[in-house]
Amino acid sequence: MRRLNLEQAMSDLPNIQEDSLDPSTNPSRSPATRHRIFNESAFSSSPTASAAAIPTLARRSSSVSRVDLDFFDPPGVHALQRTVTHISERSAKQQKTQSVDSEATLHPGDGPFDLEKTLKFITKRLEEAEIERRELGVAFQNLRVVGLGASASYQPTLGSTLNPLSILEKIKTLRHPPLRNILDDISGVVRPGEMLLVLGRPGSGCSTLLKTLANQTDEYHSVSGSVHYDSLSPEKIRAHYRGDVQYCPEDDVHFPTLTVEQTLRFAAGLRAPQAQARFQTREDYVDSVVEILCTIFGLRHVRGTQVGNNAIRGVSGGEKKRVSIAEALATRARIGAWDNSTRGLDASTALEFGRALRIATDISRVSTIVSIYQASETLYNLFDKVCVLSEGRMVYFGPADQARDYFLSLGYTPQAERQTTPDFIVSVTDPVGRIVRPRLTPQEEQARPRSSAELAEHFLASPMMAKNLADITAYNEECAPGHKERVQHYKRSAQAEHAKGTRRSSPYTSSIFMQARAVMLRRVQIILGAKMSTMIMIATFVFQGIIVGSVFVNSPESTSAFFSRGGVMFFALLFSALSSMAEIASLFAQRPIVLRQSKAALYHPFVEAIALTLVDLPITFTTTAVFSILLYFIVGLQRTAAQFFIFYLFLFTMAVTMKAFFRAIAAAFNSPATAQSVAGIVLLMLVIYTGYTIPKPSMIGALRWITYINPLRYGFESVVSNEFHTLNGSCASLVPQGPGYENVSLANQVCATVGSVAGQNFVDGNKFIAASYGYSYSHEWMNFGIVVAFGVGFFTLLLVFTELNTSSAADTPVVLFKRGSKKGAALVGAAGEAPADAEKAGAAAAGGEAGDEAHAEIEEALAAAPPMTDIFSWQNLNYVVPVKEGKRKLLDNVSGYVVPGKLTALMGESGAGKTTLLNVLAERTTTGVVTGDIFVNGHAPPRDFRSQTGYVQQMDTHVPTDTVREALLFSAALRQPASVPMEEKVAYVETCLKMCGLEAVADASVGSLGIEHRKRTTIAVELAAKPKLLLFLDEPTSGLDSQSAWAIMLFLQQLAANGQAILCTIHQPSAELFQIFDRLLLLRKGGQVVYFGDIGKNSTTLIHHFESNGSRHCEPTENPAEFMLDVIGAGATASSVQDWEAIWRSSPESAKVQEELQRIHVEGRSRGAVQATFQNKYATPWIQQATRLFRRDIRFRWRDPTYLLAKLVLNIVAGLFIGFTFFKAKTTQQGTQNQLFAIYMSTILSAPLSNQLQVPFLEMRNIYQIREGPTKFYSWSALVTSAFLSELPWNIIGSSLYFLCWYWTVGFDTSRAGYTYLLLGVVFPLYYTSFGQAVAAMAPNAELAAILFSSLFSFVLTFNGVLQPFRNLGWWRWMYRLSPYTYLTEGLLGQALGKHNITCSSVELVHMDPPSGQTCGAYLATYISTAGGYLTNSNATSGCEFCSTATTDEFLAASFNIYYSHHWRNAGLLFAYIFANIIGIYALTYFFRIRTTSIFTIFKKRKASK
Predict the structure, then answer these.
(1) Section 76-93 average pLDDT
(2) Where is the composition biased (Polar residues) (predicted)?
């Protein structure tokens, strides 16, 4: 087929060009590059363009690799031809009377289909409609970017945070923040249709340059210099055309539950031009764009597949990259900046990504700017220009094909014969990685630039810079800034695409109505894609409705249930209103997507808030209806239609209002932690000041104002008054009654309930709520209006915050040193004195470069390391795992060996089984069946094989707050035998630090290091254990830049040269990296071996194997690693005709491997088996493991002041707030109830505290599961013991602070403080610490742990006898006795409140008249002696004032089943619960995380044994 020109498949059909490129003469999909001089005329304006059109900017001639348009999906492009044919047919039919040029189109019936002529027809029609095309380049001169923050600092601790001197230092830093130059004096130009590659080491400023050129500079302190886009200023672009300039981060962030097609349709639809500019209906346009993009980028087979993320299975990594490209193209951006998008991809997929970008640039005639850390030569050849940065300075900007010669002219030479051009030119910026050309003259040596400043100065004075400036000048002349004609042309072109109803100056193509409709549809698609979440939410409402309803089931219309009915109203309102608080985390998860798409001018951010609210309304309506119906009718509330619907109306309105409130809080802040903290504090205020826990009359004046700004209070008043308005509760307790009062008339009795009237055996609900809460039914609709007003206000704030707060919190990377470190102090001082030329702290603050003396120390340390002498081998390995469809074989008959002193590479495409084989060999598999043999010297591996090997994982998993030295010492102390003296272990740690080049950062925290030093630390941690047999490494260069990867591989080569046996998987090695390896084991998909053997000098042995067996020729400049992967059919869209696995099996090389294996086994068996170093499972005793872990855990928490301060501040703030809310509670009945709720609210505090402590518990467990457990550092039981003991002191301190702030503020007796402190300050934190960790032991992550804890916690709170008193619990009394909070609440309440007298307030006194001739005292004496209570006027003969409870014991026993005498029993039972929780931590950890045998397998074995 004919190759399409750069506009033929563009998502913007109006901009299709006429001229097309020459037909492809090579239909092969081989990655061999094809060079040709770029045909500038192919991209000129069409000859039929209108005279008013602005000339298209000519692209400078360059020699770059071209990519066929049908590279990813040849059959799809042929199908696309038919689609475009249909478009032309429909268009022709619309011109019934208009003649058509024979050149315009050629229908299938007229002869062979010609896509070029068809598109010419479309172009001609668009020109007739006078649609102007537009394009955009960027020119920048003397660009300087200044950022905030130092590059090195001290590790914060709780002590340093609370130190007054540190606080003063922070205030000083806030007033005069440290500044650092990120970019300095950068100049260049990128024209439409050009691709610019930005190269540099991490910290050189690559990402900053991309963001600046993409006009995203908000995060920087200042940006100076000249930047303009064609004739437009950055301000004009941001205000009116920001959708034409996009920055694409390295992470592919999409809504995971949307399909590929939905993702593309959304972008295409919102950026679709108006009807005149489309030449099609909107639906047809979107269909065409999606069809074209899916076809060109090989996504047709995954159109209906979810994009996915780490938690949701979706498309592959390479496909996700292409989705990101396609989405950006669907938005029709004119400038695209792509930041390190090949990270983590294998070589074949990375190359496919580059080809996709080349296609995108050619088709769309966009300006493309890309930064890549590890670029292959083939990938590099796709670019027109390259910009090289070093410490923020520009050391080269010019044609990509001239960069190598320029850097050679500086006096440097490649490190290896096949070193790629990008690796070479970046190596020149690295003082350690570069190589000076031999035999330089003294003059050349003196002139050779060394530092970044010298390299930049040399380039600025070079002819290359003069050409660069001339190019900028030429560009400026073609499109001078503010050029009125060009600006007007661009403006007309953009405005011609605006939909009706869109402001002419708006950067958005679609109107707000269209945006809202599209975003609402997307929200529905997101919900449908995650049906399980919606089902779980509905199930939660059903579950809670049934449970709570059954607790209050068939509540009697009696005064005994008045308190319970209030509890039902409170819970119903609270649950429906607060269920949205969980949305905060998901709102922050989607914020990067919303912000990216709003910057792409797809829609206003506030439209997302509108769509979220509108789509959520029917869901909220449904869930609230289900919950209301269940709760209302199970409890037996007033069964009239009006009251039920009013109840439901308020629940629904309150739910919507509070959702808007919590969403507004999320939108107002930049980090989820801050939003959650604020939401938690506000939640506490709302709950307490609703009016249930403390009625308004009892509130202190200083805090009563909170109730007026609390929407829950108005909702609570309305649902309570709605229920009690028609309720005349029959009196459950008439005074007096019982023996001696059988013949007393009702006129001489009164109900002992607030609001009662003498002579009535019922209590009017209206009077009850008026006396108890100060509520009135007359406020019903006024309250509804207030709630609606709150809802409107919160919704308005949500829209305002969403639109204006368009940023997320971003941490500035800083290397953090331990206080007291001399090297750290020097680096911190240097960072504070002068600006650091670094974008990221990783490399810049890691210390100085190693000199000759340091290299000598490393060599000496390597020589001192114990050499390995044993040979590790494996034969006929197969690995089968169970899957849904049955079984899947991941490894198929794999054999090989690793010899000490040799570096063996394990390679293959993604999914070939590299990491799987590494895990099988390292005995790290937990599922499936492994067959075959693994040997050490021809014998079975020793029982402590895992302890005698080192395993360096791809992910650098460490305790982030530990210093490098501490991490190494922890490994050495626990993994070297206990018999080795500690002094010797410490000395060997210092050796490892030197060996790995980590001395400069030995006292820096691992989590703050750059990626190279973190990788070195991971390797050093394994070396510190002194592995005797083998060192496994999984992707040690993944995510590194080329120079860091080179440094790591050179270090591994040094290790191998000193006797280490190393087996290493690697993704995308350059030619020189590949040459470092001695041997290669190559796998293809299915875990099949296609090669094992020597690589040979310049890879000749490997290349000869493939070429001699029928592969294509490997070009001299081609990377052998890429060559072999391409030959075997690796890559997302590649395949191979030959069966290379069968070829290998029948090859003489395979036979030689089997012979060598036999020889190794025979020779090894003569030497004897390798003995176990120690007989126990672990190298050190359990007590030593637990002690080391406890020290580390304590240190981890001490160095995380945010965590500790959150814990302590929450306790202090809650203690003061609850304390002053119930300040000096009176001795009345209500005062006693207030004290009850003061204690009840204190127990609720365990929920946020437990959620907090689960996070570090899970973090440490993850480190154990990922790295330390499989490597046999320590026992899992030691980990659990340490986690519990290290958390406990901080929780006891927090609860103690709470007690001090709360106890005397509420007004409890000092004489009772001791027991209360024991329960609240010691037993309570013991309980919630053990319970929270036991729940976390079941959960895989913190989110699920929080959900599990909330569900279980709601049970213990619901059934502790406060919300529903014991006397009314009915069937659920067994749960009351099972709930530990029953005994905690009884212990605290009984001890703090028991044995006190109650003095009723005037409202609580009930009035009655005694029979004629009797005094009040004489009349009620018998009743008081049996039922309790007291009279205030015993001698009166009328108007008796009776208080139903005389002591707190009467009140607590009658209503809540609480007795003072049970306090020590309760303490003992709580200790029993704590013990059970601790047992639960161990049992649940083992069952859910340690156990490897299925329960069903155990049962089967038992059944078989019987």
Answers:
(1) 55
(2) 22-31
